[in-house]
Fold this sequence. Notes:
This protein is an alpha+beta fold.
Amino acid sequence: MKKIGFLLQTLQLTVTPLIYGYLRLDGGAMFGPVPKTLWSKKICADEKNRIRLAMRGLLIETPFNKILIDCGAGDWWDKKRQDIYGIEYLPLPIKAENITDVVLSHLHFDHAGGLVQRAPDGNLQALFPHATIHLQKTNWENACNPHRRELGSYLVEVINCMRNYRLNLIEGNANLFPFLSVVPANGHTTGQQMIKIKEQDETIWFAGDVIPTTHHIHPAYHMGYDMCAQLGLAEKYWLLEQVANEHAWLALPHDSDLAAVRISHAHDLNKCPSNQDEYTVIENL
Length: 285
């Protein structure tokens, strides 16, 4: 796994962006209604029309907790599925037994598969023996009985291993720690949650798949994977407003180049929005 530098650092709290690995997904599915003639100008596809995406998260360290935000796909995959998704795994930079908590945006395999490891006997088991897993109750219920469109995203191997963890099943908005809160978002999948970290004057929003890459800041770009595109777009606009108004970092789970950005309203910079660009990136990491 790759550390990129601190997003936030105080005497009591550090937040470090991590890359858990990479995967390749169909470019058309990632950009929904946007034709390839447009999205291919922003990112290159391979011969199978797949684009390379990071699997990113955050490591939050305090004197009492070591918290992961999401945990990637893991390294337990069989060769067939690993080839389908082009999964590249990067090892953890911290001992798994030292992780006290994992806060999940949702249980899709590229965000939660890292909860699982393959034991020496070949069986799958929980990777973080002392961790509590925090997720929305509705997402857990959704993952246990997924819609047929999501059968390939909610994997039974992950769900079975989840039963060996301590689960904190959250219902709606909640404060999990003095510095961390969650807000549900249901457009991409039922029970996803956006994660807000606030310490002193600094704020970070972890977008989950509400805004997977910088390209998806543009209003026309949303994923074909979204279960309810109309709701997903409304949630994206809500999050962008929060980030711009709070001068917060927006942490992006799948951008292959950038861990986080700050944005501003385009009109605040005396810019005329072009092609409906209403927000402009003003800083990146």
